[in-house]
Amino acid sequence: xxxxxxxxxxxxxxxxxxxxxxxxxxxxxxxxxxxxxxxxxxxxxxxxxxxxxxxxxxxxxxxxxxxxxxxxxxxxxxxxxxxxxxxxxxxxxxxxxxxxxxxxxxxxxxxxxxxxxxxxxxxxxxxxxxxxxxxxxxxxxxxxxxxxxxxxxxxxxxxxxxxxxxxxxxxxxxxxxxxxxxxxxxxxxxxxxxxxxxxxxxxxxxxxxxxxxxxxxxxxxxxxxxxxxxxxxxxxxxxxxxxxxxxxxxxxxxxxxxxxxxxxxxxxxxxxxxxxxxxxxxxxxxxxxxxxxxxxxxxxxxxxxxxxxxxxxxxxxxxxxxxxxxxxxxxxxxxxxxxxxxxxxxxxxxxxxxxxxxxxxxxxxxxxxxxxxxxxxxxxxxxxxxxxxxxxxxxxxxxxxx
Length: 402
Prior knowledge:
By secondary structure, the protein is an alpha+beta fold. It has three domains: 5-95, 2-Layer Sandwich (Double Stranded RNA Binding Domain); 100-196, DNA polymerase, domain 1 (Orthogonal Bundle); 209-401, hpI Integrase, Chain A (Orthogonal Bundle), CATH 1.10.443.10. Helices cover 54% and strands 11% of the residues. It is built from 19 helices and nine strands. It has helices spanning 5-11, 63-78, 83-95, 100-115, 119-134, 144-157, 159-178, 192-196, 209-221, 226-238, 242-246, 270-273, 283-295, 314-318, 320-331, 341-355, 359-365, 374-377, 383-401, and strands at residues 20-23, 28-32, 38-46, 49-58, 253-254, 259-262, 277-280, 303-304, 307-311. β5 (253-254) and β6 (259-262) form a beta hairpin. α10 runs antiparallel to α13 (283-295) and α10 crosses α16 (341-355). The chain is elongated, with a radius of gyration of 32 Å.
């Protein structure tokens, strides 16, 4: 006979002389102990061997739910899986679930640290905004509302960080889904603009000549370390990406040939074209570079504080503009509009256009890919042409310094 809730309720807790087994249907039955404890069970044959697995205890699991679980487990047999072993695996996952932090660290070590130049800042971003809220949560139990609650709050305060964090979290979850830590990447269809109302507005900040004068006053009189002053000035002169300078090793600067070689691994377009950027080193640049070399004990031109075997971190470098702005406010009693290291690059590039009309040279100087496949057929480095522009740019900066 098929079991019913009424029968189960009547027999639950009812003592008897011996263990009794009562069949339901589809190989499911209940086992009743002498003290009346009712346990749902499923009998099945796997690999020509008769086996049994417990589904749960009544009334903690209802008859309806027990039948649904029995159906699910029978489905595993069609996949050549042993239901008993699969339940043990599921139990282990529940007892010792893999946490979000654990999956992040696995992704970080196996992928992020090897493929992303700014992996250190990405790790800090996760530590600052996600670990304290979700770090110890089982990753397969974090639902979409948990994620959106965090990203929506960040989008309201720091949209740029929220956008970057969302992008990297989606990549991490995609990695985790492929390795079966989660069933699916639930952030796959979440987008910054549509879901978080984050819009990208191109920055147009360029320092004026008057602001460059103040910039140099800060480099002269402030208590910024000499190393940081040189770093800021070289960013402004070269118009390089700050990451190119942070990762630069002393050996990349050929002071005999007067060139700075930026290997493909150190610049943004290197992974696409495997091309080394070559920039000329003029006498004024060389003086700054030699001074930086004397200040750095390790292999990097700009080491990370006392950690001489590490290059200057992104966090440390991006904080420098605020130090300049703070000095201006405190000692000159003026308010300087916010600017970033990338704005120094934009400032130099804008001045290059005022100095000469050869746009392609300017693009080469800032490490951009030339249009229309020019870089495929034109392998000339234009070092002398770059030097002419740099020389005029340095002359202007010298005039502004006074």
